[in-house]
TrEMBL record:
Tagged with keyword Transferase: yes
Record flagged with keyword Transferase: yes
Coiled-coil ranges from the UniProt annotation: none
Source taxon at top rank: Bacteria
Taxon lineage: Bacteria, Pseudomonadati, Pseudomonadota, Alphaproteobacteria, Sphingomonadales
Cofactor (UniProt): pyridoxal 5'-phosphate
Protein known as: Histidinol-phosphate aminotransferase
Family indicated by similarity: Belongs to the class-II pyridoxal-phosphate-dependent aminotransferase family. Histidinol-phosphate aminotransferase subfamily.
InterPro entries, per the entry: Aminotransferase_I/II_large, HisP_aminotrans, HistidinolP_aminotransfase, PyrdxlP-dep_Trfase, PyrdxlP-dep_Trfase_major, PyrdxlP-dep_Trfase_small
EC number(s) on file: 2.6.1.9
Species name: Novosphingobium sediminicola
N6-(pyridoxal phosphate)lysine modifications at: K220
Keywords, sorted A to Z: Amino-acid biosynthesis, Aminotransferase, Histidine biosynthesis, Pyridoxal phosphate, Transferase
């Protein structure tokens, strides 16, 4: 028998990440509301910057200096305290890898972002899942699981796929009760979609605390998912650790150029946030007006809504029904939510069409 290379057992235990689909079963292209991309596309200024990027034959700036400078200026953070990643995905993985390994524990909430499980297992740590509070993050449940093996706690705020949001007081309470040697990763992939009046205080905590890492991305509100740009900020010693293990040229020339132009175009960010808030409010209002049909949109601060189907109409039927009228959404049986459908907020017309169809199916069920 030829011996073959054998992956580490913790690698074999990983269920690969399942991305949002863009096609129906018959291969027909559908309007994609399954991956929380920006329906307004990308800032025109960022698109224009694509052509001005440095030549592809040249390596990019390994430290993304200009982009970190611009982000620092926008958010009032020293550039030295910002680390860039190939998507915030890279930051999440290297945060787990830098601080945890075999024998250590990484905690996150049930119905949390599915990458946390992969990030924990990839470095050999044990993922520990805290119970939710009606699909939201339960600070006490997270804290109850902390012990001497805990190295990292991941919290997405707002959370994906639930859209739930912990207010500033809850984030502060979680941080205050954690041991100072446990890294608290606050994943703000949807942070820019939250009304600035409801700031959860994560960036301020990352500035003042020695054990907080905040991650952000250009994939959602900035409309640059395809260019793979993310970033993190925290204490100097955390940024130093992450810089040691990130990819040395992890942001391409194009990504750096487009990111820089996108940061400069905050008008696009504001327009996107306002479009999302208004469209989401109207969509949720219409579903709520349906009355007692077991169709429950969960409160969302993000650019998607998780709808629970708790009555005669089931999520799979709606998922297929929406495909029939041209939309691909995210049905979540593999994340313990066979009764849940996550729908990205698209254009007003798209969301009206989707609400019409859900209402029609619910009344007929
Ligand atoms: C989309 C998303 C990310 C961002 O991933 P990128 O690698 O930056 O594209 C991170 N966290 C959560 C919770 C997300 O939903």
């Amino acid at each position: 028998m030829t011996k073959l290379p054998t992956p580490k057992p913790w690698i074999s235990a990983i269920h690969a990440y399942v991305p949002g689909k863009s096609k129906g079963k018959d291969g027909r292209p559908l309007t994609k509301l399954s991956a929380n991309e920006n329906p307004l596309g990308t800032s025109a200024a960022a698109l224009a910057a694509r052509d001005a990027a440095a030549a592809p034959a040249l390596y990019p700036d390994p430290d993304s200096n200009e982009l970190r400078g611009a982000l620092g200026q926008l958010h009032g953070i020293p550039a030295a305290r910002i680390v860039m990643g190939t998507g915030s995905d890279e930051i999440l993985h290297i945060a787990a890898q830098a601080y945890a390994g075999p024998g250590d524990e990484i905690i996150y909430v049930r119905y949390g972002f599915s990458v946390y499980d992969i990030a924990a297992r990839r470095c050999g740590a044990t993922p520990i899942v805290a119970p939710d509070a009606d699909y939201g993050t339960d600070v006490d449940a997270l804290l109850a699981l902390v012990n001497e093996r805990t190295r990292v706690v991941f919290v997405a705020n707002p959370n994906n796929p639930t859209g739930s949001f912990l207010p500033k007081g809850e984030i502060a309470r979680l941080h205050a009760a954690l041991p100072s040697d446990v890294l608290l990763v606050l994943d703000q992939a949807y942070g820019e979609y939250v009304d600035p009046a409801n700031d959860d205080g994560a960036l301020a905590l990352a500035e003042s605390a020695g054990n907080v890492l905040v991650t952000r991305t250009f994939s959602k509100i900035y409309g640059l998912a395809g260019e793979r740009l993310g970033w993190g900020t925290g204490a100097d010693h955390i940024i130093d650790a992450l810089n040691r293990i990130r990819g040395p040229f992890n942001l391409s020339n194009t990504a750096q150029a487009m990111g820089l132009a996108a940061v400069a175009d905050q008008a696009f960010v504001v327009t996107s946030r306002e479009h999302n808030a208004a469209t989401r409010a109207r969509f949720v209002e219409r579903l709520e007006a349906l009355g007692n049909h077991g169709v429950r949109p969960l409160p969302s601060q993000a650019n998607f809504v998780l709808i629970l189907f708790e009555g005669a109409l089931d999520a799979e039927t709606v998922y297929n029904g929406l495909m029939d009228i041209g939309y691909i959404t995210r049905w979540l049986p593999n994340q313990g939510l066979p009764h849940g459908l996550r729908i990205t907020i698209g254009s007003q017309t798209q969301m009206d069409e989707i609400a019409d169809e859900i209402i029609r199916l619910a009344r007929g069920a």
